Amino acid sequence: MKCMLMDYVDESGWTLLTKDQQDHWLGAYRAYMESMKDAGVLLSSNGLKPSAFGKTVRMRNGKRQVLDGPYSDSKEQLGGFHIIEVPDLETALHWAGSSPTALHGVVEVRPYHDDLPPQLRFAEE
Fold first, then answer.
1. φ and ψ at 36, to 5 degrees?
2. Which own/partner pairs from 103-106 qualify as long-range (CB within 8 Å, at least 24 positions apart)?
3. Which of 56, 90, 94, 97 is the most exposed place for a label (fewest CB within 10 A)?
């Protein structure tokens, strides 16, 4: 099964860390991603710019509305993601619990749909 692990963090906390603390966490994330890669479960991974760089788009009465920043105000923001392929949900939960984000934020595990009709599947199979 394919899953997306989404890392939610308080993005303001990064700037409060010392250089040594930042280096420690970057090393922890590198080790985490290497362990997923070595296990053969990691398909893709990336971090996101802070939510202030985000835009939300909606169509209303045939007109596009673009708003700056995150859609909702929350304590934690989506900071990055990992696409994994594992045998079952329990294994996905294991990898989510192994994430450094789980120590200071939240990791959401979201399985892919496995019942979408072929015309709605655009990702590589």
1. -70, -40
2. 104/9, 104/10, 104/13, 105/7, 105/8, 105/9, 105/10, 105/76, 105/79, 106/7, 106/8, 106/76
3. 90
Assigned CATH for 2-114: 3.30.70.1060
Whether the model clears a pTM of 0.90, i.e. scores above it, the answer is no
What span, in angstroms and rounded, lies between the C-alpha atoms of 50 and 79?
A: 7
Sequence letter at residue 5: L
pLDDT digits (tens, 9 = 90+) for 23-64: 999 999 999 999 999 999 999 999 999 888 888 888 999 999
What is the C-alpha to C-alpha distance for residues 49 and 8, in angstroms, rounded to an integer? 13
What does the pLDDT average to over 97-104? Answer: 94
Q: How far is 42 from 33, CA to CA, in rounded Å?
A: 8
DSSP state of 56: E
Residues 6 or more apart whose Cβ sits within 8 Å of residue 55: 66, 67, 68, 69
DSSP E strand stretches across the chain:
2-9, 42-47, 55-60, 63-68, 77-85, 106-111
